[in-house]
Design goal:
alpha+beta, Cathepsin D, subunit A, domain 1, 6 helices, globular, binds 2-acetamido-2-deoxy-beta-D-glucopyranose
């Protein structure tokens, strides 16, 4: 017993030591670059795992619960499995206990806390052991950007079988989850550095360079040459809870940890699109409603909503003398590029507004509502999500590009900027201070 007390005291003193060092150099926010892969239309970032300078490229998934990657491609000398029944394991959405009969390596250990890693592109789900290792991240202390901080405690992830990489951009080796779970990237950083539980995405529309950004820990957000703090200009709408998990595997009674919002209407050139409003609310079985997804390249709408939107868009386009051409799958409303003028916010086409609870609207201009399928043809960049989808409206990545979108989990709100193009800037021009 006395030796136990002595040991606790040592830990206590040690903890004070780390805490004082941490206050001195406390980061205020973290910055990650986001790249877009044009071929796969996936958005990815890099995580510095285990060793300084070892970058693991991973696809961003707003609906993902944790980080997983192909560990065999990396050196993980300080990797440790998280054991079943440990406090860490109890805190995560665990899926039983994992063992492995092959030689021991990261991803192959006995008595390991099991999690389900999901690849949304192939719909594959694998049970894997959760492990942890050192993690380095670039942050700002409010004075300078570019300081690298080591996470005070190791970062949890699972090791993917190479099968699970199918469907991912060839430039990546895994995925990182951004949903509202303890194991997601932003939760780990916010909790371990005691930052506000906020993160923001600013997806780039260009490929490779320059890069878009993800911010973890809150604003201010500046985008040159626009001189104002975009964090102060966000329209906000509440994040709503879907009572039934939307992950492919879950325990009964679990709510969804994806980001749902309350969309109330659609408008084309300020005219209301007639739709069945029941589809916009979430039933007690968890069907319907609207979520945001970075793995859907384009916004997916339930069939009847999609048909109404396309039909109204075609009418409004005709009034603007846009010339229709044959559709290019999967899109249903395509136009001759030369019949459309250009502006700072992209092709000049009918505005699409999504009405949000709180009497707010999210307005899409041509750069977000249209996609160039070739040099001569522009199509309405929304797709048919089927007649009985689990979620009626899935706001996809093309529609989020060049907006600063803040997920504020402190006050359960989603904040959306106006199109940064409207401010003569883009997601690639950001700076943190
Ligand atoms: C796991 O336990 C089994 C049974 O005791 C053993 O055969 C196997 O080698 C162990 N695997 C690892 C990776 O330690
Ligand atoms: C509206 O959608 C709901 C949910 O799918 C359905 O039960 C209802 O019949 C629809 N109403 C109309 C008028 O189509
Ligand atoms: C953006 O640029 C246009 C044309 O160069 C200019 O008319 C407009 O005032 C600028 N807008 C902002 C917000 O700076």
């Amino acid at each position: 017993m006395p030796s136990f007390i002595f040991f606790s005291l040592l830990i206590f003193l040690f903890a004070i030591e780390i805490a004082s060092a941490a206050t001195q150099f406390k980061p205020r926010a973290f910055l990650f670059s986001i790249r877009k892969d044009t071929k796969s239309l996936q958005y990815y970032t890099s995580l510095e795992v285990s060793t300084r300078g070892q970058d693991v490229p991973v696809v961003l998934d707003l609906g993902g619960q944790h980080t997983w990657f192909d560990c065999d491609s990396y050196k993980l000398p300080t990797y440790k499995p998280i054991s079943c029944g440990s406090t860490k394991c109890k805190n995560v959405k665990s899926d039983g206990c994992m063992g492995c009969n092959l030689p021991r390596k990261p991803g192959c250990t006995n008595n390991t806390c099991g999690v389900s890693s999901y690849n949304p592109y192939t719909n594959d789900l694998y049970a894997q052991g959760l492990g942890e290792d050192a993690f380095f991240v670039v942050g700002t202390n409010g004075l300078a950007v570019g300081t690298t901080y080591e996470l005070p405690k190791p970062f949890p992830f699972s090791c993917a079988d190479s099968d699970l990489l199918r469907g991912l951009s060839s430039k990546t080796k895994g995925m990182t989850g951004l949903s509202n779970t303890i194991t997601s990237l932003h939760s780990q950083l916010s909790t371990k550095f005691k930052l506000p539980r906020k993160f923001a995405l600013c997806l780039p529309s260009t490929t490779e360079f320059p890069l878009g950004h993800m911010f973890i820990g809150g604003g201010p957000y500046f985008f040159q040459p626009y001189s104002k703090n975009v964090a102060k200009e966000l329209i906000t709408t509440k994040l709503v809870i879907n009572p039934v998990s939307t992950y492919p595997i879950y325990t009964e009674g679990d709510a969804s940890d994806e980001y749902f919002i309350d969309v109330t209407s659609f408008k084309v050139d300020n005219k209301l699109v007639s739709i069945n409003a029941t589809l916009l609310s979430i039933t007690k079985e968890g069907n319907g409603g609207t979520k945001l997804s970075t793995v859907s390249p384009f916004t997916k709408l339930e069939t009847s909503i999609y048909k109404s939107l396309v039909s109204d868009f075609k009418k409004a386009a005709a009034l603007r003398r846009m010339k229709r051409v044959a559709s290019v799958a999967p899109f249903k409303a395509c136009f001759k590029a030369t019949s459309i003028a250009k502006s700072q916010t992209g092709p000049v086409v009918p505005y699409i507004d999504i009405g949000l609870a709180g009497k707010q609207r999210w307005r899409f201009y041509g750069s977000n509502s249209m996609v160039a399928v070739n040099k001569d043809v522009l199509c309405l960049a929304f797709v048919d999500g089927g007649s009985k989808p689990r979620t009626s409206v899935v706001i996809g990545a093309h529609q989020m590009e060049n907006y600063l979108i803040e997920f504020d989990l402190v006050s359960s709100k989603l904040g959306i900027s106006t199109s940064l193009l409207f401010r003569n800037t883009t997601c690639t021009q950001s700076r943190l201070i």
